[in-house]
Structures are given as structure tokens and as C-alpha cells.
């Protein structure tokens, strides 16, 4: 019997067993589940809520999407960018191996603007996904990418536009590039940088209407465009999508 560990109402504590630095302000956190045979029990595309304390000792709760699936048995992982003034960032920055993190979930979000309700993934439910992510908004996209590409019965095509400030800010780039190479006919990744290095063949600046038109599937009844990023980016992307003819039913914002 598979033991699912989450409770949507009550916080349960999970032990940090590994912390891997990714960049100067981001890290990958691995938390052990109660038993080696346990799974987190989080549906694809859903969030968990994590509780911690800020620099003033005040309680803070934030939502995150693990990059692991229930096929990853015995643990789950979070990729966290720790901002200098972020309240929950302080908690993660101070965490050491052996510490415990209170978690509950899944957190279900209803997107009122788009009238699409809760996002739920079923293999083959869309012919193609266009994904537009900014910064840590890559985590729900990465989870969905894994779920689709690691399922041999799911033939959905994926197009990802991933925007960041600098090259060092790109999270999970190694993993994304490996997936893009392994599944060349099904996953295409287009990186966008606001401050690119001199030798750069990706996008420059902010995600534009032209980038979406070039790198995402065209409007159609069987496609969905998913977005997750800073509020200003989400708002701008929504405007572009509306202008390009994507109906509300074709859009979802995490």
C-alpha cells in the first residue's frame, strides 16, 4: 500500500536531508517522507503550502510547487530562489540538514479571471501546451513537463518560453536541456534574458507578442497556454495572448 503524506488542512513536518546550492541565491532542497515507500500525494500542477519564520520571528506561509512527482518515492524536492528581503526566503536560507519544514496541501487555486477553475492534468487531455514561465514560475511547468515526457502513453507536445534576468538565474537549465535533447520532437525550449551575455542566441528583453506567436502553438480548441511568473509578467503575457486570439478557455495562470 502506497502511503500518501499530505493533508490539505493540517501541517505535517518533513525533514531536510539534502540542500544543494544552484546559484548565489537559489538552492535545491530534498525532504524525506516518513517511509522509503511513501509518496507525497500531490496531483500534477498543484501547490503545497510551507510554513516558516521570517527574520523577525513572525510566522509566514507561502505556496510552492515541488519539482518531483509521485514516481519519486521516499522524498520530495523544492527549488527555491531566496530573495534578500523575502520573508520565507529567510527561513529557507537559514535551514540546515536535519531541520523540519511544516507542509500542507494540496492548495487548490481557482483562477476567476480565466474561468478555467482548477488546473488538472490527465494524459493526452491537450494536443499541445504552450508554457510561459518567469523565474521560479518554472517549477509547475517543470513538474508538468516531467509528468508528460516520462509517461510513454502521453504524446502531448510542449513549447516552453522561459524568461529570466541573467544566464545564472535560469533554474533547472541542465534538466530542461537534457529533456529537450532526449525528446527533441516533443519539447522545445526558448530562453529569454533581460541581461544576456555577449554570446547569446536566445530572446532578449521581455516576453513579447512576437515571441509567443513564434514559439507557442497557435490558438486551437485542443491547446492550452500556461503561464507562471511575476505579476507584472503574467499581466503582460495575458494581454499578448488575448491580442493573439487565445480564448480564456485556452489560458491558465498558476
Automatic annotation (TrEMBL):
<keyword id="KW-0520">NAD</keyword>
<dbReference type="GO" id="GO:0022900">
    <property type="term" value="P:electron transport chain"/>
</dbReference>
<feature type="binding site">
    <location>
        <position position="139"/>
    </location>
    <ligand>
        <name>FAD</name>
    </ligand>
</feature>
<dbReference type="GO" id="GO:0090524">
    <property type="term" value="F:cytochrome-b5 reductase activity, acting on NADH"/>
</dbReference>
<keyword id="KW-0472">Membrane</keyword>
<keyword id="KW-1133">Transmembrane helix</keyword>
<feature type="domain" description="FAD-binding FR-type">
    <location>
        <begin position="9"/>
        <end position="113"/>
    </location>
</feature>
<keyword id="KW-0274">FAD</keyword>
<feature type="binding site">
    <location>
        <position position="62"/>
    </location>
    <ligand>
        <name>FAD</name>
    </ligand>
</feature>
<dbReference type="Pfam" id="PF00175">
    <property type="entry name" value="NAD_binding_1"/>
</dbReference>
<dbReference type="InterPro" id="IPR017927">
    <property type="entry name" value="FAD-bd_FR_type"/>
</dbReference>
<keyword id="KW-0812">Transmembrane</keyword>
<keyword id="KW-1000">Mitochondrion outer membrane</keyword>
<dbReference type="InterPro" id="IPR017938">
    <property type="entry name" value="Riboflavin_synthase-like_b-brl"/>
</dbReference>
<protein>
    <recommendedName>
        <fullName>NADH-cytochrome b5 reductase</fullName>
        <ecNumber>1.6.2.2</ecNumber>
    </recommendedName>
</protein>
<dbReference type="InterPro" id="IPR008333">
    <property type="entry name" value="Cbr1-like_FAD-bd_dom"/>
</dbReference>
<dbReference type="InterPro" id="IPR001709">
    <property type="entry name" value="Flavoprot_Pyr_Nucl_cyt_Rdtase"/>
</dbReference>
<feature type="binding site">
    <location>
        <position position="89"/>
    </location>
    <ligand>
        <name>FAD</name>
    </ligand>
</feature>
<comment type="similarity">
    <text>Belongs to the flavoprotein pyridine nucleotide cytochrome reductase family.</text>
</comment>
<dbReference type="Pfam" id="PF00970">
    <property type="entry name" value="FAD_binding_6"/>
</dbReference>
<dbReference type="InterPro" id="IPR039261">
    <property type="entry name" value="FNR_nucleotide-bd"/>
</dbReference>
<dbReference type="InterPro" id="IPR001433">
    <property type="entry name" value="OxRdtase_FAD/NAD-bd"/>
</dbReference>
<feature type="binding site">
    <location>
        <position position="88"/>
    </location>
    <ligand>
        <name>FAD</name>
    </ligand>
</feature>
<keyword id="KW-0496">Mitochondrion</keyword>
<feature type="binding site">
    <location>
        <position position="81"/>
    </location>
    <ligand>
        <name>FAD</name>
    </ligand>
</feature>
<feature type="binding site">
    <location>
        <position position="79"/>
    </location>
    <ligand>
        <name>FAD</name>
    </ligand>
</feature>
<keyword id="KW-0285">Flavoprotein</keyword>
<keyword id="KW-0560">Oxidoreductase</keyword>
<dbReference type="GO" id="GO:0005741">
    <property type="term" value="C:mitochondrial outer membrane"/>
</dbReference>
<feature type="binding site">
    <location>
        <position position="64"/>
    </location>
    <ligand>
        <name>FAD</name>
    </ligand>
</feature>
<dbReference type="InterPro" id="IPR001834">
    <property type="entry name" value="CBR-like"/>
</dbReference>
